[in-house]
Design a protein that fits this description.
Homeodomain-like_sf; Arc Repressor Mutant, subunit A; 2 domains; single chain; DNA-binding; mainly alpha
Length: 192
């Protein structure tokens, strides 16, 4: 008799991530993951206390995927790269993006730790030189608001047919330039 196939914790997370990618987080069940692996439910319960713990790991994997996409984007303009990465994640992982962003779930509450990491990236961007941390937080919040709306439109394919990725990125760039220009004017007292 052939030995039983062993599945690592990572194998289980990858299988659950694939389910979430195409069907959403709510589609992850212990039985569905086991079926995807071609196994019983036992290996899953050996590695995870319950399905919520597994879903939390899938969310972490989504952040890892997004972080890798950001590293791959790396054009030397970190602020722009963050926005473009969000748009690309929304397009490539649209079902998962909608679950993470559009549903009220405990996995995506406003996170000051993640924002602190983004602020550190923003400090490396020459277009944002001279802004204090508080000013950068406000610029980030305004751009997150705009970029989330833009990414939702990408995830739901709400753009006219003649809008390709390049045109959508131009819209993102234009909004970022407007937000940064307004922040500079406000900082210099020229804009109240």
């Amino acid at each position: 008799m052939a030995p039983k196939q062993k599945y690592s914790k990572q194998d289980i997370i990858v299988a659950a991530f694939e389910i979430a990618k195409f069907e959403g987080l709510d589609s992850i069940t212990i039985r569905r993951v086991a079926k995807k692996l071609g196994s019983s439910i036992a290996p899953i319960y050996v590695n995870f206390y319950n399905v919520d713990e597994l879903i939390q790991e899938v969310v972490k994997k989504a952040f890892e995927v997004s972080k890798q996409m950001l590293m791959d984007q790396n054009t030397g303009q970190p602020f722009r790269d963050i926005g473009i990465t969000s748009l690309r994640f929304a397009k490539e992982y649209s079902v998962l993006y909608r679950d993470l962003i559009m549903k009220n779930n405990p996995h995506m509450k406003y996170n000051n730790i993640n924002n602190a990491i983004v602020i550190e990236q923003m400090k490396k961007d020459p277009t944002l030189s001279g802004f204090s941390n508080e000013e950068m937080k406000m610029i980030l919040f305004k751009m997150q608001t705009f970029q989330t709306g833009l990414s939702v439109m990408v995830a739901y394919q709400l753009f006219p047919n003649d809008f390709n990725e390049e045109r959508i990125i131009e819209i993102l760039d234009s909004a970022a330039a407007d937000v940064i220009t307004a922040a500079r004017l406000r900082k210099n007292g020229s804009f109240e």
